[in-house]
Amino acid sequence: MTDTLRLVGGGKDIDLYPWLTAKAKGTEALAGILGFGLPGVENFWFDGAGSGRTYRGSRVGSRTIQIPLKVYAQNRVDLSAILSDLSVALDPLRASDVDNGVAQLFFGLADDQEWFVNVVRSGGGDWARKVDSDDRTFFKTTLTLEAGDAFWTRNNPDTFTVKQEPSGNPLLPRFAKLRVASAAVIGTREVTNIGDTFAWPVFTIKGPGTGFELIGPNGEQLVWEGTLLDTDVLTVDMRANTVLDGAGVNRYDGLATAPRFWYIAPGTSEVTVIMDDMTNASLLSASWWPRRWAVV
């Protein structure tokens, strides 16, 4: 995926590096792209009676990206069609089909993975006729995009699963520690977040079972005390703080008192899962998407 730049939205997948495949027409990102570095932050300070100020925290702002473009084609009909695709991909009037944006900007890194931000157009897209365009085969413009979530997210998640073998023995791949207490399978596993900021896992639990516990790297405990039938599936989203079943029904009421949703910090840490009354049909899977402050 190295050396890729794509804009995806409205059913359109627009390659912004058409020169890599020597295409005769396309939408080409030019030199001078801005906004792939560190996003802005808002700092909060306390002004006391003494000298100076005391730092009280920060809030990451949105990311603004500017992409100079040259749109070119063999004739006016093709040029108009390419412009239409770009308009559809960035159309702010259609219903958003991703969180926090109507399109996604993908960038390929040296790890052979694509990383993306969700974006909306906040400006640009116009050009001076007969100056930046010949009105037939090309025009030049600059798009201004805004990402409400400033962090770049890897397209592919890291995962692990917890299940039982047909023999009835618990199978927790690459878990550091494992023990069985009564009807519960308890395992502690090392997980690695290759990003440079927090990643929130999403757990999917398939029944049957009578409860489970998810313990984070800092000892945070999320305990669900309900009962799962063999046809039940729960999704626990640590970032959204939600527990939903397969029909989208809220099952938050099955959580024990004072639940703590948790994240995976950059680097290697340990998480623990406890599943009660597992059978061969039971399954727990976890996925987390590494995120980066900036890409290069």
Please give a handful of descriptors for the protein shown.
mainly beta, Elongation Factor Tu (Ef-tu), domain 3, Jelly Rolls, 2 domains, nine-stranded antiparallel sheet, six-stranded antiparallel sheet, 22 strands, 5% helix
CATH topology of the largest domain: Elongation Factor Tu (Ef-tu), domain 3
What percent strand?
Answer: 35-45%
Largest sheet, described in full?
9 strands, antiparallel
Mean pLDDT: 90
Question: What order do the SSEs take from the amino end to the carboxyl end, as H and E?
Answer: EEEEEEHEEEEEEEEEEEEEEEE
What does this structure look like?
It is a single chain. By secondary structure, the chain is mainly beta. It folds into two domains: 5-154, Elongation Factor Tu (Ef-tu), domain 3, CATH 2.40.30.200; 158-292, Jelly Rolls. Helix content is 5%, strand content 45%. It is built from one helix and 22 strands. It has one helix spanning 76-89, and strands at 5-9, 12-15, 26-29, 41-46, 54-60, 63-72, 103-108, 114-124, 138-147, 152-154, 158-164, 170-171, 175-181, 184-193, 202-206, 212-215, 221-224, 233-237, 242-245, 267-276, 283-288, 291-292. Strands 1, 2, 3, 6, 7, 8, 9, 10 and 22 form a nine-stranded antiparallel beta sheet that branches. A six-stranded antiparallel beta sheet has the order 12-11-21-15-18-19, with no helix packed on it. Strands 13-14-20-16-17 form a five-stranded antiparallel beta sheet, with no helix packed on it. A hairpin with a 5-residue loop joins β11 and β12 (170-171). The protein is globular and about 70 Å long.
